[in-house]
Amino acid sequence: MIKVSGERDQINIAKVYKAGQDHILRFWDELDYDSRKKLLAQIDGIDFQLVTRLAKGLGSDEHKKPGRTLGRAAVVRAPQTPQEHQARRVALEEGEKAIRAGRVALLTVAGGQSTRLGLDRPKGEFPIGPITRKSLFQLFAEKITALRKRYGAQLPWYIMTSEATDSATRAFFERNSYFGMPRSKTVFFKQRMLPAVDRRGKMLMTRKDEIFMSPDGHGGSLLALQESGALAQMEEDGNDILFYFQVDNPLVVVADPAFIGHHLLEGAEVSCKAVRKTLPLEKVGVFASVDGKTVVAEYSDLSEEQQELQDEEGELVFGFGNLAIHLFSVDFLKRVLATEQKLPYHTSFKKTPHIDKNNHLVQPRKPNGYKFETFVFNTLEFSEKTLVVETLRADEFAPVKSTTGADTPENAVRMLTNMWGRWLAACGVHVPLDGKGDVQGVIEISPLFALDQAQLAENVKAGTEFTGQLCLEP
Ligand code: UTP
Fold first, then answer.
1. Pocket-testing residue among 190, 247, 376, ligand 1, by greatest number of atoms within 8 A of Cβ
2. Which pLDDT band, with edges at 50, 70 and 90, does 66 fall under?
3. Nearest C-alpha neighbor of 148 from the set 464, 448, 413
4. Dihedral (Cα; 114, 116, 121, 126), 10-degree rounding
5. CB atoms < 10 A from the CB of 429, how many?
6. Pairing of strands 157-161, 104-109
């Protein structure tokens, strides 16, 4: 066993050996003082018992619970009838009251590594504005600023970063004067990281003095909220409702008051937004019911038959996809954190660059490393009362995920333009569409000019014309 001086380091090194991970100390003799210190600090942050448990279970995802009978989940449909519209109006008022009363805090999870998009900076910096090319972060900041003004509320914004995104994210906000948000109400906090392991359960190294680590999933937000003191701060500030959204969805209706109202009127602990699947086999997690509880079932947990299953009216039984837009009661989060039972870990097998025993960099062509993450939607399994509210994809969901496939930045930009086009058309502006129903041209409306169609109707000048490009800023 290698020799170290401090007591804590000695204990940690013993843990490394006990866990059978001593290959991470292979280059110890070649390391200088700073490198040794760095490696010891990383080791100090690793829960070796957890890694051992996860490595033992490779190939058997611990979140998968075989034998569960999935039923249909109850969903509040997007309003169509006069009664449903009336119910929505009541919910809207209730939600607005809660926002005005300062009960709502906001959480953006922005700790992911954006591997599919292949960015060299945090995804929140992605230039999404169709004309201005303003970033996702700026777009959200403008939405929040407009809401703060509308409701005279603080709406503190908590942003979860990770070791992978933290310093760049903070620097981006600094460089841009926090996009007008008060610094005291824009709070960054970091999630934990976890090592990745190879097929034999051995941790991978990126350098002689560095273990490969990746963020522990968006489910890590719960622990990170607690460890950073954010949860305690929310309680001190009287925020008892947390609006959760991901950094990659520019269409999100931040702090949607009708959603908040439904959540409160229903006495829900967790609420989720849902959209109808575009196709029965769409690869999206769907809402289902298990023993009376609403859960999110991953598409891989459903057979093709289940995915295509229809009721008598021809509606898909598992037809509502999870948007990753949630409301949590702060008390619920505290309760989940206090229970012994933890969120299950999901395993993914990915190409993971690393060094071999001769310090040669290996760029694998095939997956070689297991990463472990917890998912925020697994909190539903702890909830006594969950509400699912349907919304329309075109109005609220355009995730920026990948350079290919359905969820590209180009698609998100098109959906933004189309949504703003619909708002303008409703205000009487002529907006020509092409054969596919897309706006012919490009439109951008700053949330500071209009947060929604109703506000646009108040602010748009009479005689406004659209001639292929229109940018409305305050
Ligand atoms: P995704 O699972 O889509 O991951 O995250 P990603 O990082 O954006 O992209 P890939 O999978 O590497 O290509 C959904 C949301 O959850 C956040 C992301 O930042 C994004 O907002 N997230 C994900 C975290 O905050 N932490 C994590 O550990 C994982």
1. 247
2. low
3. 448
4. -90
5. 17
6. parallel
Q: Ligand 1 centre from 123 Cα, in Å?
A: 9
Under 8 Å between Cβ of 245 and 136: no
Burial 248-271 (b: 16+ CB within 10 A, else e): bbbbbbbbbbbbbbbbbeeebbbb
Q: Which residue has the tokens 């999935």?
A: 70
Question: Using CA positions, which residue lies closest to atom 7 of ligand 1?
Answer: 112
Q: Provide the CATH topology of domain 71-404.
A: Spore Coat Polysaccharide Biosynthesis Protein SpsA; Chain A (3.90.550)
Ligand 1 atom with the smallest distance to the CA of 110 is 19
25 phi and psi angles, rounded to 5 deg: -105, 10
Element of type H or E holding 194: strand 193-195
In angstroms, how far is CA 463 from the centroid of its own chain?
Answer: 40
Q: What pLDDT digit, counting tens, does each position of 415-471 carry?
A: 999 999 999 999 999 999 999 999 999 999 999 999 999 999 999 999 999 999 999
Q: Which residue in this structure is represented by tokens 């071999």? A: 356
Rounded distance, CA 304 to CA 246, Å? 28
**140 and 108 in contact (C-beta within 8 Å)?**
yes
Asked if 46 and 25 count as a contact pair (C-beta separation under 8 A), the reply is no
> Strand pairing partners for 469?
442
CB atoms within 10 A of CB 355: 18
- Rounded CA separation 157/140 (Å): 10
Find out whether the beta carbon of 247 lies less than 6 Å from any atom of ligand 1: yes
Q: What is the dihedral of CA 36, 40, 42, 48, to 10 degrees?
A: 140
Strand, coil or helix: what is 189?
strand
Cα separations (Å) of 21 from 42, 202, 388? 14, 6, 44
DSSP state of 130: T
What digits encode the pLDDT tens for the residues 303-322? 999 999 999 999 999 999 99
Residue 366's SS3 state is: coil
Does the beta carbon of 261 lie inside 6 Å of ligand 1? Answer: no
CA 45-50-51 angle, to 5 degrees, is 80
To test ligand 1's pocket by mutation, which of 107, 193, 218 has the most ligand atoms within 8 angstroms of CB? 218
Is the Cα torsion angle 159, 140, 382, 263 positive or negative in sign? positive
Write down the domain spans for the chain: 7-45, 71-404, 408-474
Please write the tens of the pLDDT for every residue from 339-367: 988 899 999 999 999 999 999 999 999 99
Mutate to test the pocket of ligand 1, among 126, 248, 371 (most ligand atoms within 8 A of CB): 248
Residue type present at position 410:
E
Question: In this structure, are residues 215 and 110 in contact, taking their beta carbons and an 8 Å threshold?
Answer: no
Alpha-carbon distance 181 to 141, whole Å?
7
